[in-house]
Amino acid sequence: MHMPTIDELFPAPFWTIGDWFEFNRLDLVRMIAAVAAVILLYLGARRTNLVPTRGQSTFELAMGFVHKQICEAAMSPEMARRYLPYIATIFFSVLALNITGVVPFLNISSNALVAVPLILAISAWIAFVAQGIKSHGLRHYLASSLFPQGAPKIMYVVLTPIEFLSTFILRPFTLTVRLMANMIAGHFLLTAFFVMTSYLLVEGSGLLKGLGLVTGAVSVAFILFEVFIAGLQAFIFALLTSVYIALAKEEH
DSSP labels for 169-190? Predict the structure, then answer.
């Protein structure tokens, strides 16, 4: 029985081998997810009718969820409308790249590697820093972020490094690691159960085949759970990005 290893996250390139622009299976999965997301969103939004079609209704429901449950949950209504395109892009990008982990013949989330989660986290970092500078000016934003009001000045020796790490380093770091770690765990858990099921049903006998049926049922349950996790991680990433942007606008 061959259990999955970390090497599965680093597939060999099959195009432009030896070049800076090597193309492997994970890159292909990313492209498929991106193209599928763009096509589905385009089809849902290309024609808006007073009496919506089924596709338009689904699109409006999804955008309404992002607007009400993510943007307006963290921001003022005015900010929510302004940042809706960006937050929706974050949400649907993470969701599309996550859901490929349970799509047959793809079977892996490209968010299980650090590259895409890090890029998304950096974009969130740029968004909330830019909002803070726009709202307060560079000097005041840095002062309010690094020097908490009301604290004794002597405490800034301790508080300022902590605030710097918390605001400008740990926020993008935790966004990256949370998303990546959940997708890695989900991939290996699903793969391990399906490998175990296949081995028990093919190589086992008697009670072992019965155990294989049990692990197969558990595998199906984990597929549904992984779909839930894919959506949950997209929601958390988009919501935290909204919260950070809203915090940057507020006075500290």
Answer: IIHHHHHHHHHHHHHHHHHHHH
243 contacts: CB under 8 Å, gap ≥ 6: 74
Domain positions in the chain? 17-249
Give Cα 56 to chain centroid, integer Å.
25
> What is the per-residue pLDDT across 181-238, written as a single tens digit (0 to 9) for each?
999 998 888 888 888 888 888 877 778 878 888 888 888 898 999 999 999 999 999 9
Q: pLDDT tens digits for 7-59? A: 878 888 888 766 677 888 899 999 999 999 999 988 888 777 777 777 788 88
Going by C-beta distance under 8 Å and a sequence separation of 6 or more, which residues neighbour residue 178?
A: 233, 236, 237
